[in-house]
Amino acid sequence: MAVRTAGAGLEEQWRDILSVHARTMCEIDRALHPHGLGASDFEVLDILATTVPEEGGHCRVQNLVGRVHLSQSALSRLIGRLEKDGLVERSICAEDRRGVWVTLTARGRELHAEVRPLQRDALARTLPG
Q1: Of 7, 75, 78, 95, which sits with the fewest C-beta atoms within 10 Å of its C-beta?
Q2: Cα–Cα–Cα angle for 126, 82, 24, nearest 5°?
Q3: Do 90 and 77 touch, CB atoms closer than 8 A?
Q4: pLDDT of 75 over the 90 cut
């Protein structure tokens, strides 16, 4: 009986996490849509803007995969869209020709700075705490 209760509690906790995640992603998507971005787009821009300036403003695509929670192919398509919009640039890694660098452009940095408060407001509205 205790096993069922513990299992049910874990399932309920898991569903609560999924619910908060879904609400938060939808809220971020709504807030950023007028600016041509979605939540995952913003996440890539935010990582590039806030965690890699000391590395020359670029990051290897494979290092983004685990941080953005998209498959390699979905992330590649997303980066392709961001590149088409002039927000990031891709280049081949000189040390490892299989590797691809992603760099935030000036336009990408400006858009990130513009929409970051909108994303943070969406987080404040939807996350418990």
Answers
A1: 95
A2: 10
A3: no
A4: yes
Model pLDDT, residue 53: 54
Q: H helices then E strands: how many in the chain?
A: 5, 3
Residue 59: left (phi > 0), alpha (psi -120 to 50), or beta? beta
Whether the predicted pLDDT of 56 surpasses 70: no
Q: Return the residue matching tokens 């700075």.
A: 113
Report the alpha-carbon distance of residue 91 to residue 17 in Å, rounded. 37
Task: State the pLDDT at residue 78.
Answer: 96
Q: Is the pLDDT of residue 52 over 70?
A: no
Query: DSSP string of 15-48?
Result: HHHHHHHHHHHHHHHHHHGGGT--HHHHHHHHHH
Cα 82 from Cα 100, distance rounded (Å): 15
The rounded distance, in Å, linking the Cα atoms of 7 and 75 is 34
* pLDDT (tens digit per residue) in 5-24: 767 889 999 999 999 999 99
